[in-house]
Write a structure and sequence with these properties.
heterodimer, A: about 290 residues, mainly alpha, MetI-like fold, two-stranded antiparallel ribbon, 2 strands, about 75% helix, B: about 325 residues, D-Maltodextrin-Binding Protein, domain 2, globular
Chain lengths: ~290, ~325
């Protein structure tokens, strides 16, 4: 019995030790540093209590904008990336000609690095020679042409469209995997009972995809909170800091300005905002599921 | 990261100003003052280069490059518009409209990242503030909420409103702005002594271009300059430190003999492949000011980039931009107290 109790721990130990050393301890140390004024190399760290957090919330207008942008980005990701991913999965789960090729085409951008996507889309948005403006002009919509990345109102949505193009493949594949685990029997029974297609979708497909939704929601949410590379590559946080997000502003504070305490405080905001949403959601959904 | 973990190599490349001072101020670099005296560096290296690698009276790096900035222009564009290099600020401004009328983009600047447009901003500031106030502003010893700063931002706004910059320039990559110059579709760009080599590397003929000093109309007429250097790890083994210094000097000599960029050494021969370097070096003889993104603390530099964009996008007035710059300077100073 005793052996049965400690055996799982023995198998977990290597991964747990690495996790503790690489993730947990540095996270706690980062939290500790968020209460100090420190440039990262000086032997002296000045304890400033909650001052870094207060400064961010009351005086740093870029941080406040970054927080707002992160929340908007997350909402947009959950609605559009999840939504389009789900719609594509439903479509490509049908017996269509060439559906395997289409699955590959839609998944392909997800395999590209964020910087590659950022470079390509930056050229597409180029105000003078970019594909987007050229296309609009060629179909008679010249008045719609725009310096998409150069204006604060359009910059973040323009970057998000690039991120949507890149990111939609991941939820699509996860939803497809979920859809393929649903057996045909309940659908056949429902058809015999006279259920219409929207009823089959509402009462069979959606409930049986609950676990997939948990996974997709969690990965999309965490990914959107951590968004960095595509923004850094396309706008560098500009114009006029209008596309800064928490990760990019944390990078600026930590590595460009050597304000380690402020950068650490931003990273803890990031963790806290993610936790506040994700923990209740995962608890709520897993309680209702069998996983 | 390496600095934070105290795992810096025996020597590393860096720029002068606030980028190199980070290591020196935190006691990570070897003090080379005695070595410089023993080996008579003052007879070997350009004084401006030595000044830019000196912090608190201590030489903290082996200078390798001294870069001088100037306004480069395609000769064909100037010929077509019937223009010659301007010698006064009024002439410079009148040329902008003439260049626009001739069908090119007068100012090839791309503000993505902020630093490219900053090169124009700092020239305007030198013109309006003059050398003394400009130096004080960079040292944060004078208020940025000053009429000279407001005038500088007013000019940026005016040039933006008149369409002198590329369309959507606040997010144009500097390399895209450079491409306009190579293709002779723009009037001028602010680049440094390396630009001869860059033009050639991009497959164009650098003899088709020329360069002039921005007419600040100040005395002395100063150019924007910056140095590149090797710093030596102050915690390395003394034998390795000596070897690192020798390697740094060897590289500086190699650069001098082979004409890579602008050497920091005195009387370096100028290669035929870089026909504009002599003129640029001469332009700095009367004096130079350290390029802004190395002169100011990095968080104040970032605020300057934000201010440039917000003025161009009409989110801040020039007066607001000057106020915000001063706020950023004060915040930085209070943090460092």
């Amino acid at each position: 019995m005793a052996q049965r109790a400690w055996k799982p721990w023995l198998f977990l130990a290597p991964a747990l030790i690495i996790y503790l050393i690489v993730i947990f301890v540095p996270s706690i140390y980062t939290f500790y540093l968020s209460f100090f004024n420190w440039n990262g190399v000086s032997p002296q760290k000045t304890f400033v209590g909650l001052s870094n957090y207060i400064q961010l919330l009351t005086k740093d207008n870029v941080f406040q904008l970054a927080l707002k942008n992160n929340l908007l980005w997350t909402i947009a990701s959950l609605v559009f990336i999840m939504g389009f991913g789900f719609a594509l999965a439903l479509l490509l789960n049908r017996k269509l000609k060439g559906r395997v090729a289409f699955r590959g085409i839609f998944y392909f951008p997800f395999l590209l690095s964020g910087i590659v996507v950022a470079t390509g889309w930056s050229w597409m948005y180029n105000p003078t020679n970019g594909f987007v403006n050229k296309l609009l002009a060629s179909i008679g919509l010249e008045s719609w042409t725009h310096a998409w990345l150069a204006e604060p109102k359009t910059a973040l949505p323009a970057v998000f469209i690039a991120a949507l193009w890149q990111g939609v493949g991941q939820p699509m594949v996860l939803f497809l995997a979920g859809l393929q685990t649903i057996p045909a029997d309940p659908y056949e029974a429902a058809i015999i009972d006279g259920a219409k297609s929207h009823q089959r979708f509402r009462y069979i497909t959606l409930p049986l995809l609950r676990e997939t939704f948990v996974i997709v929601f969690a990965t999309t949410m965490i990914g959107s909170m951590k968004v960095y590379d595509i923004i850094y590559g396309m706008t560098g946080g500009g114009p006029a800091e209008s596309t800064q997000v928490l990760s990019s502003w944390m990078y600026y504070q930590t590595f460009k300005f050597a304000n380690i305490g402020t950068g650490s405080a931003i990273s803890f905001f990031l963790v806290m905002v993610t936790m506040v949403v994700i923990i209740p959601y995962v608890f709520y959904t897993t309680k209702k599921s069998h996983v | 990261m390496a600095a934070s973990a105290r795992t810096l190599p025996d020597m590393w490349f860096t720029w002068g100003g606030t980028l190199g001072s980070f290591y020196a101020d935190n006691g990570m670099t070897k003090d080379l003052t005695q070595i410089a005296a023993d080996q008579n560096w003052s007879a070997k290296y350009n004084k401006a280069a030595l000044d830019m690698v000196t912090y608190n009276g201590k030489i903290s790096g082996v200078p390798i490059h001294l870069n001088v900035m100037g306004m480069w222009y395609p000769k064909s564009v100037y010929d077509k518009a019937g223009l010659k290099a301007p010698t006064t600020f009024a002439e410079f401004e009148s040329q902008l409209q003439k260049l626009k009328d001739s069908g090119v983009t007068p100012l090839a600047f791309g503000s993505k990242g902020g630093w490219h447009t900053m090169r124009l901003t700092e020239q305007l500031l030198e013109h309006f503030a003059g050398p003394q106030l400009h130096d004080k502003l960079n040292a944060l010893d004078a208020s940025w909420n000053d009429p000279a700063v407001v005038k500088t931002f007013e000019k940026l706004k005016e040039y933006t409103d008149k369409g002198y910059f590329p369309k959507g320039y606040s997010m144009v990559d500097p390399t895209e702005a450079e491409a306009l110059i190579y293709q002779e579709q723009a009037g001028m760009i602010n680049e440094g002594t390396w630009f001869d080599g860059t033009i050639t590397a991009e497959g164009f003929d650098n003899s088709k271009f020329d360069v002039f000093s921005f007419p600040t109309e100040q005395t002395p007429q100063r150019a924007s300059v910056f140095a590149e250097m090797f710093q030596i790890n102050g915690e390395s083994d003394p034998a390795k430190q000596d070897a690192a210094v020798r390697l740094g000097e060897f590289i500086a000599d190699y650069i001098t003999k082979n004409g890579h960029g602008t050497p920091a050494t005195l009387n370096a021969p100028v290669s035929d492949a870089t026909p504009h370097v002599s003129a640029l070096l001469d332009s700095a003889k009367a004096g130079g000011f350290l390029i802004t993104d190395q002169a100011l603390p990095q968080e104040v530099v970032q605020k300057l980039f934000e201010a440039q964009d917000k003025v161009a996008l009409k989110e801040w007035t020039p007066a607001q931009a000057a106020e915000e710059m001063e706020k950023a300077a004060q915040t930085y100073k209070s943090r460092k107290k």
